[in-house]
Protein 1
Amino acid sequence: MNLDRDTALQLVKAKLKKERFEHTIRVADTAVKLAEMYGADVEKAERAAILHDYAKYRNKEEMKRWIKADQRLPKDLLHYHHELWHGPVGALLLEKEAGLDDAEVAAAITCHTTGKANMSLLDKVLFLADYIEPGRKFPGIDEVRETAQENLDKACLQAAQNTIFFLMSKGQKVYPDTLHNYNHLINTITHR
Ligand code: DGI
Ligand code: FE
Ligand code: FE
């Protein structure tokens, strides 16, 4: 991997507010533990976690320009909440600004907020670590933390369910990948 740990930490430290950097460190610790537990690449999990919120504080208009300009980014993002943009735009900017050249790490960063159908092991580790890191206080989180000790797919499913409930309770739109993630995990779990 081309970005070493300290370089990655310094890179994001410069871009993030203090609380967000502390969240990042907790996500990295959680991702390492999950990777060890479930046999994912520990180094990639840690790197993806350190970098996952790289674009969190980018200006909305700048992110919009990148989504329009880069053919790899799905245009339907523009019709959904801007909170969903920092993952895909972050992965792109890490390639452009920091020379990240790891497709697996970039993919995990891209889908960390919504998940997607057929997530890789690394995608799931980051998706779940971001959800259960010890600083999070979502309703139902303790159950997800417990499940995370036993079954990665079930824990990701619970996280996806909670997020969908939360969005519906606020009358918010649900991005298709959020639903694809949920549907795919239901199939994975019931067909085992
Ligand atoms: O960047 P973080 O705050 O660490 O966490 P995140 O990248 O998981 O973003 C969390 C936010 O994203 C949270 O407010 C819920 C929201 N979110 C997740 N999926 C969807 C969504 N928001 C909308 N509108 N639609 C979604 O499908
Ligand atoms: Fe995020
Ligand atoms: Fe995060």
Note: The two ends are 34 Å apart (CA to CA).
Protein 2
Amino acid sequence: MALAHTSGPTDVPLLEETIGENLARAVATHGAREALVCRHQGVRLDYAQLGAAVERLARALIGAGLRAGDRLGIWSPSRAEWVLVQYATARAGVILVNVNPAYRTEELAYALRQSGCRMLIAPERFRTSDYRAMLEAVTDQLPGLERSVFLDTDDWTSLLDGAERVSPEELAERESGLRPDDPINIQYTSGTTGFPKGATLTHRNILNNGFFTGELCGYTPADRICVPVPFYHCFGMVMGNLGATTHGATIVVPDAAFDARAVLETVEAERCTSLYGVPTMFIAELADPEFGRFDLRALRTGIMAGAPCPVETMKEVIERMHMREVAICYGMTETSPVSTQTAAGDPIERRTSTVGRVHPHVEIRIVDPETGATVERGQRGEFCTRGYSVMRGYWNDPERTAEAIDADGFMHTGDLAVMDEAGYVNIVGRIKDMIIRGGENVYPREIEEFLHQHPDVMQAQVIGVPDPRYGEEIMAWIEPREGAELDAEDIRAFCRGRIAHFKIPRHVRLTREFPMTVTGKVQKFRMREISIAELGLTETETA
Ligand code: AMP
């Protein structure tokens, strides 16, 4: 038996340029082709217009006093300005900090403080989220935040006006000092110890990962990629935006936040050739009662990723959505993100029931989590990745970086996988204590620590339980303090407004005891079994 250790092809070389240089080439080659369509804003930009808008904003950022290496946060649902900010920060050498638009005060304050953001860009409000009020509530915790710029207000126009003070030569001068290996993006991912960690990525990391993901999808300038996944996550800003602009393709944004109907309408109206989504999104689109009225025949490909992909959903996407070349990607933010991907030419069975094979220029191995030795093909172990795609580290956190990336440069993903003889990989579980609810990662520890702040909570233990719609749902087992009156609604009300909605326990079970090992450790797998039986839930077969 061969060992579970492979490297991807290297025939197409890595891009050795900055994101700005790559965009400049796209603008020069594809000027009149459509680059960005944001349906909900009525925005349409061709490559020449996108290039000009990005240049103006990059000069404006320099005019606002941001230096190379400074941090700028963006806390916004998907909109055209997000894309402009992504490319303008890259041109100005400013590190973009992605803040999940679902973050609430606790999480926002932590991310901005930990990364040391000097500027924050956000809409004033979106649906029920009052971003201005939430920011004001935590401003005293953010001495380093010098300026907040609210979109659709004078803040934004006066920021842009500042471009007049900075000449194109000054911008060129700034860009000449940038290198592909410079950090350019910090993405916060849920943390094992109660706080999110800032995965720090370079131009080289994300530009190449977007490029090769697009290569495997066979993108050309004729492709129109529907991106309903959020920009704050690498699925949107790397596989979506960079995947498109490295190929002269079009980014099509159906709505500010996911809405199944808006996706179907957009695919039809914009004749999209590719559609992205976490499994939950495809499940919702297929379940739309009016699904049959949409003409989705322009679709050729797309990507399902971010959480275990149900085999049945993959089959339906191929048959009912015409996405005959659809790919499954597997990866994580810390690896830019993609490590494996199915290819259009793979046998259909492999394309629906595995996460594919190793990506170009990437090396993967599956190791025994106890000994670190590479296991054989067919055996399960921890999935590890090495190569250009591995992040620089967690921002200002050498300790946790050293826990994640070993001395040989392999990122330990915490995912359990099996590799077959032909190199195809299956994700079979996780050793990290993490829940994925509809594509959003949640570490139980983070919620447990938060729930312990409730005066009537004696002990809180959080688990993930299967859910047909979200893959997994959050469940909290709560032991109230002696004499305290607590119910599920009290727990949820305590969370609202302070932590993101997707971390709020859907199921709450009040209890007086937890299943324990003899050494007194809570047995989460037992809690899960008990809850599955009590709630009458079932598990789904996935890739
Ligand atoms: P993120 O950092 O948000 O991209 O989440 C990364 C995690 O999502 C991985 O470590 C996996 O646990 C999970 N994940 C991503 N893609 C897949 C997939 N195709 N199948 C199963 N799990 C996945």
Note: Residues 189, 305-309, 328, 330, 332-333, 337, 355, 413, 415, 427, 430, 436, 441 surround adenosine monophosphate (CB under 6 Å).
